[in-house]
Amino acid sequence: MPFDSKIAELRFGCGLSPVVSGPTDTNQMIAAATGPDTAATRFPIETFDTFTRRVSHVVEQVKLRKKNRGSPEAMAAKKSIRVTNKEARIAQAQWLGQHINRWVWTDSPLRERLTLFWADHFTATGKAGVIRRAASPYVEEAIRPRILGRFEDLLLASVLHPLMIHYLDQDRSVGENSVQAAKGGRLKGLNENLAREVLELHTLGVSAAYDQVDVRELAELFTGLSHSREMELKFRKQFAEPGSETVMGTAYGGTKNPHIRDVETVLRDLARHPATARHIASKLAVHFISDTPDPDLVAALENRFLETDGDLAAVTQALLDHPAAWSPAPANVKPAFNFVASALRALALPPDALGALDERKMRRLFVQPMVQMGHVWEKPNGPDGLPEEDAAWIIPQGIAARLQWAVTMPQQLMAVPPDPRAFVTTALGPFTTPATEFAAKAAESRWDGVGLVLASPAFQRT
Fold first, then answer.
1. Any residues with CB less than 8 A from the CB of 225 and at least 6 apart, and which?
2. Which whole-number Å values give the CA distances from 271 to 134, 146, 263, 403, 448, in the listed order?
3. Could you give the CA distance from residue 363 to residue 376 in angstroms, rounded to a whole number?
């Protein structure tokens, strides 16, 4: 199938826009995604390095509170912690608005799609206190700059990130024969969470030929990985299991002084493993094309991954260059965020419309409706992230929530609706249908017509 600019925007981008032009070819799509990140500059989200200042402040205030129990200083510290948590919660809602604005106004939609894909692949979030708000800064620092680099660099940046270590309780893992274990104390046992997810989700895939021994050996190699209270990466040698560990037939470590280099080495080897190539190829094809992708497409992506040692720009180019990518038949259902953000891109929502919303309105207009659609923003059910299968999104409650949002929310963000008769083509392009065109023309009001277009089955798929 030949390249089609409209399909490119719908399937590999953020949806059609009446004001932002679509790409001219696949090379231009890759070039835009590897060029200057103008969307991030225009709609900034703080990096994790900046976010840790909030964490450090809370750590300091906790120390003051403990040191001065019952005193005015302790009460002031308690209040300061509460204020910092509130500020982070408000910032998290604002960052959701920035994510949406990037989707609405980006001239490199592929960058936004890939960022969301890889952020979900390497799902991580905080569990309590101010760190609960750290998911967007984590993505901004670890994921977004590496979406078209080498997979192994993306893997290391994500797996060794303090938020990932915190999320999967790696900081609570202690080698059974380590110096720390001999001392006793609160932390005593091996934690396999990170090792299991690295093998099952991040690299080889659940169907690969590894076993529980590989999981345990990798978990032992990971002992020592931790973070400070200020959420900085640390390698604690006294927690590390001594001796060598064998993962997928290769021995690692074994020196007298355990080192994080051993962890980096095993991650790079896993990143280049043939099973990882198959896993990543399949996941990309399913996410962007279909729940049941063409086997030839998956094979092409797998081969390109292996040929280039996991060059994600080359793998993405192979995805865009394959004929199966340009089938005119819509396939995948949009997840909740994609649906909401692409709707506002079709409406060309002014950037300041979201900037004017306070936290309460952001939650009412976006967070709560997305929950009803099946996506709890930055609160994943587990490290496997959002479901890929269409059936998870096309359920009665989710469809009802999409319809409700489509016919009520846009008019709360914009004063003047577009003409629904023209908006059908603006929003759907080649996927418009006679039924949707009729509904738009017959609607009692312009906003009703717009809502019916956004709620139509055609708008739900790419």
1. 160, 165, 170, 171, 173, 194, 233, 235, 260, 263
2. 26, 14, 12, 42, 49
3. 11
Question: Residue 461's Cα: distance from chain center in Å?
Answer: 20
CA dist., res. 113 & res. 441, Å (int) = 32
In the DSSP assignment, the letter for residue 394 is -
Residue 108: phi and psi, rounded to 5, are -135, 70
Tokens of 441: 């023309």
Where are any strands of DSSP class E within 266-363?
Answer: none
Overall size of the chain counted in residues: 462
Rounded Cα gap, residues 231 and 59, in angstroms = 10
Cβ contact 169:191 at 8 Å: yes
Helix/strand/coil for 357: coil
DSSP per-residue string spanning 110-142:
HHHHHHHHHHHHT-----SGGGGG-HHHHIIII
Q: Using alpha carbons, list the distances in angstroms from residue 374 to 134, 270, 337, 377, 401.
A: 21, 32, 10, 9, 9
Q: Where are the beta strands (DSSP E) in 183-263?
A: 225-227, 233-235, 244-247, 250-253
Give the count of beta carbons closer than 10 Å to the beta carbon of residue 84: 18
Tell me how far apart the alpha carbons of residues 31 and 26 are, in angstroms, rounded to a whole number. 9
pLDDT in tens, the chain (462 residues): 789 999 999 999 999 999 999 999 999 999 999 999 999 999 999 999 999 999 999 999 999 999 999 999 999 999 999 999 999 999 999 999 999 999 999 999 999 999 999 999 999 999 999 999 999 999 999 999 999 999 999 999 999 999 999 999 999 999 999 999 998 877 779 999 999 999 999 999 999 999 999 999 999 999 999 999 999 999 999 999 999 999 999 999 987 788 999 999 999 999 999 999 999 999 999 999 999 999 999 999 999 999 999 999 999 999 999 999 999 988 899 999 999 999 999 999 999 999 999 999 999 999 999 999 999 999 999 999 999 999 999 999 999 999 999 999 999 999 999 999 999 999 999 899 999 999 999 999 999 999 999 999 999 999
310 close to 284: Cβ distance less than 8 angstroms: no
Q: Are 447 and 414 in contact, with CB atoms under 8 Å apart?
A: no
- Cβ neighbors of 390 (< 8 A, separation 6 or more) are 291, 332, 333
Residue whose tokens read 């205030």: 61
Give CA–CA dist 210/425, Å, rounded.
50
Residue with tokens 């977004």: 144
- 8 Å CB contact between 260 and 235: yes
Q: Residue 254, by phi and psi: left (phi above 0), alpha (psi -120 to 50) or beta?
A: left
Please state the pTM of the whole predicted model: 0.97
